[in-house]
Hints:
Layout: E1 2-5, H1 17-25, E2 31-35, H2 36-49, E3 57-64, H3 68-80, E4 85-89, H4 94-108, E5 111-115, H5 131-141, E6 145-147, H6 153-163, E7 168-172, H7 183-187, E8 191-194, H8 196-199, H9 204-223
Parallel strand pairs: 1-2, 1-8, 2-3, 3-4, 4-5, 5-6, 6-7, 7-8
The structure holds 6-hydroxyuridine-5'-phosphate.
6-hydroxyuridine-5'-phosphate is lined by residues 5, 7, 35, 61, 118-119, 147, 149, 172-173, 175-177, 193-197.
Amino acid sequence: MLIVALDPPFSSSIEGVGEEIVNSLNPVVSGFKIGLPYIFEYGLEKTRRLRQYTDKELIADLKLADIGHIMSMIVNKLAENGFDSVIAHGFVGVKGALSELKSTCDRLGLKLILVVSMSHPGSMEYIDRHLNELVNNAIELNVHGVVAPATRPSIIRKVREMIGEKIKIYSPGIGVQGAEPGDALCAGADYEIIGRAITNSSNPYEAAIMIKNKQDNRVRSCRG
Ligand code: BMP
């Protein structure tokens, strides 16, 4: 239920860059999300090494938004570097972009996760106006998952209603961005993606345990 966004800089109490956090958090999380901040900070070699520290889902959050040919080249590299899943933007459209990306992901055994709404207010300016189309594309493409915001649980509820139970909902926006642990799960998300509330803590393991407890309590009260 908890995916940690490994975005540096990490708390100064952490040594050994992300590897130490991954090692300690591995028993309590469902996966880790790695984005450009991590790859730029530590390089591809160290990013690839994360695979040695976890058997949990390793998500490459590059928010791909390009033509199919280029996105396919990139996901080939991601598969070579030990990732299980990749996040792409839904707004690039299906023809010549997401359809090709999905075929490449299937061939490589990578799980495709599409952004259908975001946690910041600007998501309402453009992306959210097309929520229905983006979610319908995700259904049509039979993707593994979608990203929807914990900061707007009504969107999660709507997405869940549209996609049914099969497609996973990954939800960021908890902690620093304002939502509480469990808010997204109670609205229908499968996973809450949390970064700074854990990675900036002087004890990321303790922080993750506290968040998990909050999630459990919240879910118990909302699901009965
Ligand atoms: P934090 O918990 O520190 O706010 O981090 C949230 C993480 O989720 C970041 O890695 C960010 O890139 C990602 N994210 C987000 O915050 N909102 C979205 O709509 C989509 C994201 O991937």
